[in-house]
Amino acid sequence: MTSTSITTALSVNLNKVALVRNTRRLGIPSVTRAATLCLQAGANGITVHPRPDERHIRASDVPELAALLKDWPDREFNIEGNPFHNLMDVVGELVAQKLPVHQVTFVPDTQGQFTSDHGWCFPDDAARLKPLIEQAHAWGLRVSLFMDADAPAMVAAKAVGADRVELYTEPYAAAWGTPDQAAQLARFAAAAQAALDVGLGVNAGHDLNRDNLAAFIAQVPGVSEVSIGHALIADALELGYSATVKDYLRCIHRVLP
Questions:
Q1: What is the mean pLDDT of residues 130-158?
Q2: 206 catalytic residue (yes or no)
Q3: Which residue of 5, 88, 138, 181 is surrounded by the most CB atoms within 10 Å?
Q4: CATH classification of 9-252, choosing from 3.40.50.720, 3.40.250.10, 1.10.8.60, 3.20.20.70?
């Protein structure tokens, strides 16, 4: 199977830039400067995940980045996090200030969790997610649900009101270069096709990098957006933001029709 995508957007997650900044009180590296350099290099959007403990992105970073995005009307601001923690408050303040935010990605992480490591569970989470999805829609925002690559679950994600799913790609990344790689790619391709079949858009993210990204986009149909943070920022430490973003875009573009 080959991808039917016409375009796949690259959204740069800036959490790790903020993590380094927070180790000192000097304000460097600057999160907004990093965003500017990534957008200048062609990134299609910016992603942040403001956790309640503010160990990386702080609540104060979010309106500053949103204000920056006003100068880039063709790019998107994606804010992810657990809607039962601080996410809805953070997003609601942007909406009240009429600052740009385009997509919210609901992630079922716990407070203090090291990193996101699983998707929503249906039908268990449906009843409590539905009113929050409706609230985000009332604000005029697209809603993506962070999901495991479980094809049957896509029907439930659509039924609860999601616009897209973000496939949690760590199992694929962990299998890269192993005998399980093909099976994982097939699993993700099936989940993406199931999402497309019920009218959901498909995003993807977690541990995607310059080695495994092209194969994923080539084999998984209809990927609208990849959100990449840890690997991209690690590469930028060696290559710089501009060269790194351009290289990730090359990984995407060389496999798309």
A1: 97
A2: yes
A3: 5
A4: 3.20.20.70
